[in-house]
């Protein structure tokens, strides 16, 4: 169930900014991308382009249904910043519109989020308990500094295997928060309960307000820096990559001989151009024109063109001589069983490779029934414990040397 309308009250001094928030939302609603961009603060403009803003509402309506109405704007503090918030009604859902403005009324950001996320926007607290201990550290990747958390069993004093968690696409936090789910936080706690340490970190594109031009810059370089840090905390280092992170995990292992094994969760085996077209067929309502689907495709590619560079992930994985574990949710529409079958075929002669799929799990490895949809992510969900069972078994039983 989605939460009801947000109870927010604006102070009289907020009136000019409330009017600006409404105007920005109208630009978004009516696809006036140039007007949105023109009203952005100068420090934000290098991070986005009018082309990236173009069609944003249409993409939301493709998932949530036709826009119906929105409530009056109110002021709410989120992650230490003032945000102007309105509850937006669509045919199939309600979302929260957030407009961030600076003191001059220039826009720092505009988002449509699940209502639950607005209520949960709090800073991360370490999960200390009788069974789990967490410590903060920093990944150094060139001139980049990324906050990281190491999670381990509290009672274990000796050396442990440690797993570096590598995100999917987008500016992810260290928990890989998507809607009401935090799969990396779930995995870190579940694995600690099973005797395995983890290292997770905020992604470069979340911490720094600067664009990236390649997958190495967005993902791989920082993941390998995380591996270097993890060696200080564990006896053997494994990489667990989810989605795009899983797709790049074989290349990471190829570049760094210190990686003892890789786990690929929902990893594309096909080029992302093909994967994206399959996603569009799944989420776009029936009856949409081929022209609309093509516009949706082109807009998505424009937002991060480097993500669609052809890779050789299957060939790279096949050549590795370290243990590999490939896991797949059978309800996943973002990376489907077609990719899993390609991995199965490519790795069938590799005695160090293990593959397993789960009938009830979606892309975030959360259980559900029936076909998965984008709206499913908005509900609170948790990684199935049996996924952590399989990862922990793989890590603890993998041979030290191949």
Provide an overview of this structure.
- This protein is of the alpha/beta class and 402 residues long.
- It has two domains: 12-120, Nuclear Transport Factor 2, Chain: A (Roll); 132-397, Rossmann fold (3-Layer(aba) Sandwich).
- The chain contains 14 helices and 13 strands.
- The strands form two sheets. An eight-stranded mixed sheet has the order 6-7-9-8-10-11-12-13, sandwiched between helices. Strands 1, 2, 3, 4 and 5 form a five-stranded antiparallel sheet that branches.
- It is globular and about 60 Å long.
Structure at a glance:
With 402 residues, the protein is of the alpha/beta class. 34% of the residues lie in helices and 23% in strands. Helix 8 crosses helix 9 (244-255).
Can you give keywords for this protein?
Nuclear Transport Factor 2, Chain: A; 13 strands; alpha/beta; 14 helices; 8-stranded mixed sheet; single chain; disordered N terminus; 402 residues; 34% helix; Rossmann fold; 23% strand; 5-stranded antiparallel sheet
Task: Itemize the secondary structure elements and their pairings.
Elements: H1 15-29, H2 33-38, H3 50-53, H4 56-64, E1 67-70, E2 74-78, E3 81-90, E4 94-101, E5 107-114, H5 115-120, E6 132-141, E7 144-153, E8 161-166, H6 183-192, E9 197-201, H7 204-207, H8 215-230, E10 236-242, H9 244-255, E11 259-265, H10 272-283, H11 290-303, H12 313-319, E12 324-329, H13 337-346, E13 353-358, H14 385-397
Parallel strand pairs: 8-9, 8-10, 10-11, 11-12, 12-13
Antiparallel strand pairs: 1-3, 2-3, 3-4, 4-5, 6-7, 7-9
